[in-house]
Amino acid sequence: MRTTQALATLSRVARRDAIPLAQRLLSSIEARAEDAWRALVGREIEERLTRVSLTSGSQVDPFGLDLAWGKYALAAVAFLHRRYFRTRVYGLENVPDGRVLLIANHSGQVPIDGAMIGASLFFDREPPRVVRSMVEKWTQTLPFVSVLFQRVGQVVGVPENARRLLHNGEAVLVFPEGARGISKPFSQRYRLTEFGLGFLRLALETNTPIVPVAVVGAEEQYINVANLTSMANLVGMPTFPVVPQWFIPGLQLPLPTRYHIHFGKPIFFEGDPDDDDAVIEEKVWVVKSTIQEMVNVGLKARKSLFF
Amino acid sequence: MKTEASVPSRRGAEQGGEPTILVTGLCGRLGRRVVRRLHRDFRIVGIDRRPFPDRPRDVKLLQFDLRRKKTKDVFRAENVQAVVHLGVLHNLRDSAEMHHEWNVVGFQKLLEYAAAFRVPKVVVLSSANVYGPRPDNPQFLAEENPLLGGASFSEIRDLIEVDMLAQSFFWRHPETETVILRPVHILGSVRNAASNYLRLRTTPTVMGFDPMVQVVHEDDVVQAIERALIPGLRGIFNVAGPPPLPLSHLLRMLKRTRVPVPYPLLRSTLDRMFRLHLSSFPSPELDHIRYVCMVDDSRAREQLGYAPLRGIEETVFSVEEGRWW
């Protein structure tokens, strides 16, 4: 009897005092964060947010995009884009206004390259565009990551989703190398791995221009010495890269290399989306060699790794 | 295939009995609404084990088990022009055998009679849960997507089997117009997991997950069933309500206190509570508040002419009607 009374008192205290207190604490933290955010990025993001054309009228689009929710993430991305990686963007005028497939090389162990491509179209392009990138389904099983990815416009990489987004006139970013590309060891840097074929079938089917994108500078942010396949299988991750600097305290952050992002001229393809792999492969090869060429040119033009 | 000679006599039809719709499971919360809507336009005969005390007076309730021989007598005696099958059992306190017996065997019998007596229309209420919430789901599932709901939640395999049975019936009996409806989470006075979850005043959520969800008002499901009865329509139709929202928005609308709990902890706690009868939610259902399971209902909109009439607020708040505590 006494224990139940004690429990009842406890729950009353929890409900009357603890929860409101926690809520007040939370809202004050939120207010602080708001101030910090303002100080960091100024009015620019807000102003850009009002100018992006979202396909649906409501606050959250059907794929879970909610830039107002993700504005702190946007601020972090803006910081990385402007201050940390000091990204240089070339050829933004090649990105058209309507539906477009952005095909890029994937590198850097952690998909910061996707965020930087997104940032260049959001912060540097006029008018700003929101990039919807196709992500590995595995990310959806990760707590917090899944919500964050959704709110900033990332979409699970299945053809149905890409088709729907292209149909709505969105800019869809695809890394046809997938996990193979991002976790390349350092010795293989800037050598494009095998491309998937799905993106080209999609482009043919929806009659979408392909804009090749080359990212230079991401390969050196983390130095990968090996990929452990057995470990990857064990923990259920797509790959398990070994990055020595992750074991040194303070070097978990990527190295502040300078990013160079090159947008190439749109490529148009015609043909039957259900053609044999051999036919599609030829077209994919055109895209892949274009990107490889852009990477090579970008590497040559680069004066220094960090400046 | 039955030959012409072996078609049993349809006394009801031959005597020109009044065209009748046979509704199974009409004493459930959704069933009652369906019957209240349909009885104005059609003669209704219902089969259910449960009572339906304040039913409309022109609705004939036959209170027996669907699997009994008497069911066949109903087809024999009445001029059944359509079967609306709502009578599925989904209560995880009952055994898997019981579920199979009731949902699969019972439904098989019903389809057998519908074929034998050449019923021109069969409407089956399935659910979008048959697709299953999965991390690799496309954001909007089409009717052609595989039914993978049983992969992580084996207790709903019998419901998937019901859907499959209806599909094979659709192909084997082109003389019958078969309609399979797959609505998303139905909200309202119904006591399904989704409505019960939204009725909780303090709502546990899975920490770090906030999937987009689709809900539909029970009356919009009734509307879809009504439209499925239109002669000439057949096929599988996803049924969704107002545009999707993140789960957190629905809970905020209802002013619920959200308690995020890490998934492993939530699952083990829920398992234990379920075993001790402290909770009615089996832990595999947590996937519904973790992963997407949304449908593309454009086919229903185009072919059935279906359009949800209830907005998101009305749909969400309708769960309060069904509160019994």
Largest sheet of chain B: 7 strands, parallel
Strand content of chain A: 5-15%
Query: Which pair of chains has the greatest number of interface residues, and how are they split between the two chains?
Result: A-B, 25 and 24 residues
- The CATH level-2 architecture of the largest domain in chain A is identified as 3-Layer(aba) Sandwich
SSE string of chain B, helices as H and strands as E? HEHEEHEHEHEEHEEEHEEHEHHH
**Termini of chain B, distance in Å?**
51 Å
Q: Got a strand count of chain A?
A: 9
Rg measurement of chain B, Å:
20 Å
Q: Strand-and-helix sequence of chain A, N→C?
A: HHHEEHEHEHEHHEEHEEH
The CATH architecture of chain B is 3-Layer(aba) Sandwich
Structurally, how many domains make up the residues of chain A? 2
Category by helix and strand content of chain A:
alpha/beta
Strand content range of chain B: 15-25%
Tally of contiguous helical segments of chain A: 10
CATH class of the largest domain in chain A: Alpha Beta
Domain count of chain B: 1
Please, how many helices of chain B?
A: 11
Mean pLDDT of chain A: 87
Q: What's the overall average pLDDT of chain B, rounded?
A: 91
